[in-house]
Specification:
The structure holds 2 protein chains of 2 kinds. By secondary structure, chain A is mainly α. Helix content of chain A is about 75%, strand content about 5%. The radius of gyration of chain B is 23 Å and the shape is globular. Classes of the chains: A mainly alpha, B mainly alpha.
């Protein structure tokens, strides 16, 4: 089994190598090869899963020590992998959804000239993401962390001929660097504090408490910074919306289902550190609560279907971060929501991609409408995903999101009320903006004129089977996953040995909470129907009141960053440049001038007369003898 | 020679009690002296060749004799080392006159290899434009009265007149150099000094082109060299007056008090003055040979005036021999005087590094620039000498081996860049050389980078070794000055690279002669040594480290 673990990563890595280095010889096989290797990885994951299930609950882990990566003095880092229930969950999600999206891309990218590169990058992403979740130490995790960042950068900017895509890729990379610094500092801190990077050596309550609460808090905060960058949480959220410039399968896989949830993984994996640092936990829940509302509000105001979904992703990850910050009451539910979200959000994005595929990359929902008749499969799968995300009773989101809201209340005290309230409010807004998307896209009259009718738009049509099939599979997951996980608390028992679990004491009974959630959901849906279903949707966005305008501008995130960081940074750089030009260059030129001047003067001593040479020798000799005698005298 | 040195104190008794003290023939260990003897033998054979072999065959015969002699001498060094002389045992041969120990053998081996490479450049005859009447012309004047390129010269060349004497002269110089770092007493040291110097004075005067400059340089070198020899000899006399012996080990014993000083001296204060002044003057004689400030003034003029192959040989080999002798003197004869000579040497080292680096900045002639660069390198080497520990010795040994090959290579490249007037040594003529002759320019750039001490070249390994040894020996300020001077020096090395690669080529620029296999081999060996000692220096460090113990 140990060797399978290495093979699991090797398959997509090999794919990336072959596709990226193979040149045009592998052009034709690229889509099939990339998808097959992703599929192979999933099969290997499934075999490992069945192997884990065969073991007793307390000993479900497989370790694989590949080689010693670096060994200098007391510094030792291994390329070693650790598979337990937590990483197994991720492996199945990553390879499962990854394979589906590979298959979907065969259809979606069929006409793109750079297909080979696209599949190469996707394989690279899978390999990096698997390293991230399978690493048994923080240093190797960092490798995966940077690897997925690289893949994300390459795929956001995949159509780099578009300036907007190139800029978006750069933006994502830069903002992510801020978070990556957090992880780097965390790794440094771990080594200086514990002398090791391994999970086994650090993540134990007694080890963490031996370092003292101050260290634990510092570690927790830098880890949170890392998580904020990768998972697009406030204040490092600004890149996710622009990242939608990438091809839609990328948005589905990387910027919805897997990579952006790496922050949640990091926090859950580091639970021992956060459990020992209440201050850091407080910071985590604050970030989660703020982001879940931030993303939801932005999602309400966007007309671009992908950007609206991106806001939603941000918001849903906010839920997960919130849950992870709650400690042992929340970890399991954070991961459970992560998995169900992986299903329905990937499905929603693929649906959006299917629509864009039919409408020549039109993303403005104001130019959609009435598509349910033209694209029945897309409508059905998108609709099921929609019901799942708003928490319609019985579907996946209902189970996972309700648990988080419940856990937030169970935190207790004022804190619990505030967090629970925010989560409930978020649920209502989710219902509103998702219903808005649904209504604007599929219902009402078509707000476009096809070419046949003398307009510019193509006639909408259903996507090919190779694209529809993955959507169907994901829709099935969106419907049943939550219920399946919750039946007999299966997911809880599965994950508990890794993350630990404790029941909180909610001040509000479960029944009341469920009822409240459903009522708020219906309110949100009703409001959206009232606004967009009952009335005509204007073709251009009307000038609205300022909160709406602010939300359309992503609540001013870019204006804020520009004013504070870009301008401040520019001013700082200008100051440095001036200091460099005047101070440093001045000193350098001064020294150079002095040396040159000294040189011109000294070379005059070399006058070519042997008599003066002899005299200088004589003078030197006298000086040396005198100096020697003087040294003895003193 | 050593017999005189040892027997000298006994002269009076010899006269008075001639019957009672029979003269014993000195015991000569021929095997241990074989490297020197082989070279001397080859040199004498060279003179015989000059006398008896027909003119036309002389060049080939001389080259063969020289190279065979060098090969034999090197085999002798390797043989001695293989029998354990450098590492497990050491001996004072010829009644204490010649030390056969690690540093001797290491430096002798280096010197022989350096001379072999140098001889290849000296023997080059393919650089001048050739014609049917005058097939081969070398870098040396065939006849003093013949103007270069004139009918007279052509006639002389056709008649087979060429200065094949340089080969035996080189071998004689080498034999002096082999004695120099191995000398066990002061008189042998002096004889080595003279044997190595006199042929060099001659060879400096032999240039075929720019003859006046060449002859002037020879006269300057001779006059100043004689002056320095006088210092040396006077210092020898004073030390003998102090210690009553010329033996380096014997002097050390007197300094430490293990042996009685000269009976004629009763007041120790006077004795100290003799020791201090004598020691200082001997050191000065050696500092002249290495070209340290304030005894450096001859270097630029001689380097510029001498025929370039000779300059390369001289710059590389003399420095090796003279630093070897300096190390032996300071570590064997005067180690107990460390607290007296160290501050003065500090001053000399700092002045040498600074003056060499700074004055080189404004030089416009490539040979003069390399001369000042060699002064700066003498300063860097002095920091290693001053370190005063075993690591310092091995670092200096390594540095010498590394530096000498870089120097040979660099001067060999200089012989290639020519115009109608011979070598084009003015730096402005080198503009854009990299575009015309990329291979030559890249090779020269490699040597310059090695001089500058850029990593992956032997210059870096050597500089790192001497500086770290000096820092370990407590000379941190000296290291700081050394690093600063290296920075200044890097400027003028890199400036040449910039000129070669980033300046527009001149329309009337020099052409690069295609060398024969001789110079080609010399340059290739220099470049290979530079790279190998830069990338894989460890084996050479180990070798130098094993060979770093002096016999006392």
């Amino acid at each position: 089994m140990n060797s399978l673990l290495g093979l699991l990563i090797a398959a997509p890595l090999l794919g990336a190598a072959v596709l990226l280095l193979g040149g045009r010889f592998v052009d034709r096989v690229a889509p099939v090869l990339g998808s097959a290797l992703a599929g192979l990885s999933f099969v290997l994951g499934a075999i490992l899963f069945s192997n884990l299930l065969g073991k007793p609950a307390s000993g479900r882990a497989i370790d694989s020590d590949l080689f010693t990566w670096m060994h200098v003095g007391t510094f030792k880092a291994d390329a070693a992998f650790h598979l337990d229930q937590l990483s197994m969950t991720f492996v199945l999600l990553i390879t499962g959804v990854g394979t589906l999206i590979h298959i979907y891309s065969i259809g979606y990218m069929a006409h793109d000239e750079k297909r080979r590169k696209f599949f190469g990058y996707l394989n690279l992403f899978l390999a990096a993401m698997l390293i991230l979740v399978l690493a048994d130490n923080y240093l190797l995790l960092y490798v995966g962390w940077e690897g997925v960042g690289l893949a994300s950068y390459l795929l956001i900017g995949f159509w780099q001929h578009k300036p907007s895509a190139a800029t978006a890729a750069k933006k994502a990379f830069l903002v992510n660097r801020v978070g990556d610094i957090g992880l780097a500092v965390a790794v440094f801190l771990m080594f200086t504090t514990f002398g090791t990077f391994t999970f086994q050596g650090i993540l134990h309550p007694s080890v963490v408490s031996s370092a003292g609460q101050g260290k634990a808090t510092a570690l927790g905060l830098v880890l949170l910074l890392a998580a904020c960058g990768k998972s697009a949480q406030v204040p490092l959220q600004s890149w996710l919306g622009d990242a939608m410039e990438g091809p839609t399968p990328v948005s589905a896989l990387i910027h919805a289902a897997t990579m952006v949830t790496a922050g949640v993984y990091l926090i859950t994996r580091s639970s021992a550190i956060f459990n020992a640092a209440p201050t850091a936990q407080l910071a985590v829940v604050c970030v989660g609560a703020v982001t879940l509302l931030f993303g939801a509000i932005v999602g309400c105001a966007k007309d671009d279907i992908k950007k609206a979904l991106a806001g939603s992703t941000m918001s849903q990850i906010g839920y997960m971060i919130l849950a992870a910050g709650l400690g042992p009451i929340g970890y399991v539910f954070a991961i459970m929501h992560l998995v169900t979200h992986g299903f329905f959000k990937a499905g929603l994005f693929l649906g959006a991609g299917s629509i864009m595929h039919a409408r020549e990359d039109e993303v403005d929902m104001r130019k959609y409408g009435g598509l349910w008749k033209k694209m029945p499969w897309t409508f059905a799968t998108f609709g099921l995903g929609y019901l799942a995300i708003i928490g319609f009773p019985g579907l996946s989101g209902f189970f996972s999101k309700d648990k988080i809201i419940e856990a937030a209340f169970a935190k207790g005290g004022t804190e619990g009320w505030i967090l629970g309230g925010a989560a409930l409010l978020g649920a209502a807004i989710t219902a509103y903006y998702m219903s808005r998307i649904m209504v604007m896209t599929f219902f009402g009259k078509p707000r476009y004129t096809t070419k046949a009718e003398g307009g510019t738009s193509p006639e909408a049509h259903e996507s090919p089977a190779v694209m529809v099939a993955p959507m169907v599979v994901l829709a099935v997951g969106s419907v049943f996953a939550g219920g399946f996980f919750s039946l007999g608390s299966r997911f809880l028992h599965w994950l508990e040995p890794v993350t630990g679990h404790s029941e909180g004491h909610s001040p509000v009974s479960t029944g009341v909470l469920t009822a409240a959630t459903i009522v708020l959901m219906l309110l949100g849906m009703g409001l959206a129907w009232f606004q967009y279903g009952m009335r005509e949707v204007p073709a251009a966005a009307p000038r609205s009141i300022w909160p709406v305008r602010l939300a359309r501008r992503d609540l001013g995130q870019d204006d804020f960053n520009h004013a504070v960081f870009v301008r401040g940074g520019t001013r700082f750089a200008d100051g440095l440049a001036e200091f460099d030009a005047k101070g440093v260059d001045g000193a350098v030129r001064g020294v150079a001038g002095a040396v040159g001047g000294g040189s011109s003067r000294l070379r005059k001593l070399q006058n070519g007369y042997v008599r003066s040479y002899a005299f200088s020798m004589f003078g030197g000799a006298v000086l040396i003898v005198a100096a020697t005698l003087f040294m003895r005298a003193v | 020679m050593s017999a005189t040195a040892v027997a000298a104190p006994a002269v009076h008794s010899l006269w008075t009690t001639a019957a009672a003290a029979p003269i014993h023939a000195p015991k000569i260990e021929y095997a241990q002296l074989s490297p020197i003897l082989v070279v001397l033998g080859a040199a004498v054979a060279g003179i015989l060749v000059e006398a008896f072999v027909p003119r036309r065959a002389r060049y080939g015969t001389q080259l063969a004799v020289t190279l065979i002699g060098l090969a034999g001498a090197f085999a002798a060094v390797v043989g001695l080392a293989a029998t354990g002389y450098a590492t497990t045992k050491a001996d004072l041969a010829a009644m204490g006159s010649i030390a056969v120990d690690g540093p001797s053998l290491f430096l002798q081996g280096t010197l022989i290899l350096v001379t072999a490479v140098g001889v290849l450049a000296i023997a080059e005859r393919g650089l001048e434009p050739q014609s049917r009447e005058v097939p081969h012309v070398d870098a040396f004047a065939p006849q003093a009265a013949a103007v270069p390129g004139s009918e007279d010269e052509k006639a002389a060349a056709r008649a087979g007149w060429s200065t094949t004497e340089v080969f035996p002269l080189t071998l004689f110089a080498l034999s002096g150099m082999l004695v120099f770092p191995a000398a066990g007493d002061l008189l042998t040291l002096f004889i080595g000094l003279e044997i190595l110097s006199l042929p060099l004075y001659l060879m400096c005067a032999l240039a075929r082109r720019r003859r006046l400059l060449s002859q002037e340089s020879a006269v300057k070198y001779f006059l100043l060299g004689a002056f320095a020899s006088a210092f040396f000899l006077f210092g020898t006399a004073l030390l003998y007056g102090y210690a009553g012996t010329l033996d380096l080990g014997g002097i050390a014993k007197v300094v430490t008090g293990d042996a009685a000083p000269n009976a004629a001296l009763n007041a120790s204060a006077h004795g100290d003055a003799l020791l201090l002044i004598g020691g200082a003057m001997i050191v000065m004689g050696l500092l002249f040979k290495v070209g340290a400030v304030p005894f450096h003034a001859w270097t630029p003029d001689v380097y510029q005036g001498a025929p370039t192959p000779i300059t390369g040989f001289m710059a590389a080999a003399t420095k090796v021999a003279a630093f070897g002798a300096l190390l032996r003197l300071l570590y064997v004869a005067l180690p107990e005087m460390r607290w007296d000579w160290r501050p003065v040497m500090w001053g000399v080292a700092i002045l040498t590094m600074a003056l060499g680096a700074i004055v080189a900045v404004t030089q416009t002639d490539v040979k003069r620039m390399l001369a000042y660069s060699s002064i700066a390198h003498a300063g860097f080497l002095l920091t290693g000498v001053i370190a005063g520990n075993k690591q310092g010795v091995s670092a200096v040994l390594f540095y010498l081996a590394a530096y000498s090959f870089v120097t040979l290579g660099a001067f060999a490249v200089v012989t290639l860049v020519r115009d109608a007037g011979g070598e084009a040594t003015h730096l402005s003529r080198w503009d854009g050389l990299g575009r015309r002759s990329p291979l030559v320019a890249v090779t020269f750039a490699l040597f310059l980078l090695a001089f500058a001490g850029i990593p992956l070249t032997s210059g870096f390994s050597g500089k790192f070794a001497v500086f770290s040894a000096a820092a370990k020996g407590g000379a941190v300020p000296l290291v700081v000055v050394g690093v600063l001077c290296s920075a200044v020096a890097a400027f003028f090395y890199v400036r040449v690279i910039v000129r070669m690669f980033f300046a527009e080529p001149r329309a009337d620029g020099p052409s690069v002669a295609v060398p024969s296999a001789l110079t080609g081999t010399a340059i290739a060996v220099g470049a290979a040594a530079t790279l190998v000692l830069g990338v894989f220096p460890q084996w050479a460090f180990d070798l130098a480290d094993k060979a770093s113990v002096f016999i006392r």
